[in-house]
Amino acid sequence: MTSNSDESQRKAIRITSLSKQANDLSTLCDIPIALIIFSPGEISPTIWPNEDAAKVIVTRYLSNTETEKFKKLVKLETYLSSKLEEKENNIRKPEKRNKEKKIEITFNRLYEGKVNIFDLDDTEISELLNLSALAQDKLEERKKQLEQPSHTSQPPSLLSHFE
Prior knowledge:
Oligomer: single chain
Helix content: 55-70%
């Protein structure tokens, strides 16, 4: 009798855990979710969140055409491919940041006179030229912003004298 009690307790814990996960998924994805759990030897299923809500969700799903049902279907292969690509991109980002940081360090060492320009290889010089061009573009953009007349930056009392 204790094994039956232990089994029902484990089942209750699993259902509670599954219900919590379904609730979290429903909240995160903003989608309606219903659980209908059939257990061996039991006549009525366990239904989450409740029977009325589950009926509404299942009825709505069944009323969709086959095309609508499969429109949002994501194949496991497609999902995993997109996740793999995302992970690869995240791996490349730090590499790019490290490369940019290395260029900045080289520039600073060159500026401070710790490195001679003749000690740099072609790749480092090319990267420094690119860094210089980017900095020049940012300076030109900032210069244009500062040259534009901006009446909002002056206090209203000063503007009233010029109108």
